[in-house]
Structures are given as C-alpha cells and as structure tokens.
Amino acid sequence: MAKNAKVAPAEPKVKKSGRVPRFQDGARPGDTLTKMHGETKVVVKVLADGFHYNGNRYTSLSKIGGEITGCSTNGPLFFGLRAAPEKPAATPKAKPAKKAKPAAAPAAA
Q: Which of 109, 48, 41 is nearest to 79 (CA)?
C-alpha cells in the first residue's frame, strides 16, 4: 500500500440477509434519537461503532445520559429504547399471631 493512500472507513457489517445489524436495544446505525430533557432538546446520532452527541463520539448511551444528567444513567432507558422494569406488586405481610395471654390463676377462697 502506498504511503499516502487513504483507507476507506469501515462499513457496518451486513448480514447475509442484507440488513445492517441492530444494536442490542433496537437502534440502527443512521438512526437519530431525540429526547427533551428539561427545556433542552437532545439529539444523538447512532453510528456503526457508537454514538455522536454534541460534537463528540461515545461508546454508549449511558455515557451520554450521564453527561446530560450529571449522574449515573441507564442510557437505553433514558432515551426510551427500553421500558422501565416493572416492580413486583407489594404483597401485604402477614401479621404475626398474637400470643395467647396466660390463664389467670384461680382466686384463693
């Protein structure tokens, strides 16, 4: 290869079906994720090897969500790609049986 030859960027791998593989959470390269956070519109572009947000590349949505919120965030949940897990219904706890009162001693006559 020549010294100054340019290497083409890697294309996403195409399955035999001809489709571009989806990320685990359903986003495909080329998709745009949009979310309102407060009064700010957040736009993230899905790339073949990660995500593009605010002029930077990220490897995960969780890192982007963390940058936006300032705390640890589940990225796919934050961007609506995954539903929040349902919490199991609270089951009422059985109250412990009351202790029987000891029988009173018969009064002496």
A: 41
Identify the DSSP state of 91. Answer: P
3-state secondary structure of 62: helix
Report the chain's C-alpha Rg in angstroms: 29
For residue 57, the one-letter residue type is R
Q: Structural domain boundaries of the chain?
A: 19-69
Q: How far apart are the first and last CA of the chain?
A: 118
Cβ atoms of 12 and 30 closer than 8 Å = no
d(CA 81, CA 36): 14
Question: Whole-prediction pTM value?
Answer: 0.56
Continuous segment of H or E residues that includes residue 63: helix 61-69
> Tokens standing for 69?
């919120």
* pLDDT tens string 13-38: 444 555 544 555 678 889 999 999 99
CB 50 within 8 A of CB 57: yes
